[in-house]
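Subject: Glycerophosphoryl diester phosphodiesterase membrane domain-containing protein

B.,
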Amino acid sequence: MYHPFSIAETIKSAWNVFKKNYISLIIYSVLSVAIGTAVKFAVTLFFVSDNFYSQIIFGLLMLLFQSFLVLSFYKLILTLIDREFYEFSFSDILPSLRMVGNLVLIAIGYGFLIGTLSFINFRLADHDQIFYVLDKIEMVGIGYLLVRSIFCLCFIVDDDSGASESLKQSFRVTRGNFFKIVALIIIVIATVFLLLLIIAGIITLLVDEDSSMRSFAIYAAVICWFAISFPIVQVMIMVTYRKLVYSHLDVDDDVSETV
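Prediction pasted inline below.
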């Protein structure tokens, strides 16, 4: 590797990307929440029945739409990184149906895996010792798979990879850097949690507990927290992905050239 993967360099690069584009990222996050809420409300009007098949259709439609929003956000970050000094159009950040379909396949695959494990746990619920040990093994195993496959969305957006190929690529770039990625995840979670505490503290200072505006203030605070924390998480994922890819390609990973 020309430049081995570095946590410090990754955080520095992610901060530079966020600092240059935070207005666009925050606005897009708020718009995503607003559009997502509106679409969910509209779809609910057509699937108000408790019918099992209606609920399945509703779940699939929401999964498709949420996948579209997530991938579009990834494409926005990637476009902002690659075209920092160039103009781009709205169509540049729209994912293709193939990309959305591949993400849905991965989500369904993970859902099937977790559902199968839950069924096994249910069958073993009467065997306390076996259930306890197996439950802990499953948690570690799922956590390991999630960390190793965390960049599959990046490959879907960046390389237009298929579902299985993106998973293979994610496992390939995370090989040898598992604990560094876990450390980055912990740092990001701590940062997001600290941000939550700061916003909660501000609400406590500015709004009385018995105030009629408290519910509205809490809702606004949650939106504000999401609008800031979601871009931070996604930028960190995308920049980490780029750093890992370029370190494996044995090329210079200077932020001005690759991120």
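Confidence is low (pLDDT under 50) at residues 255-259.

T.
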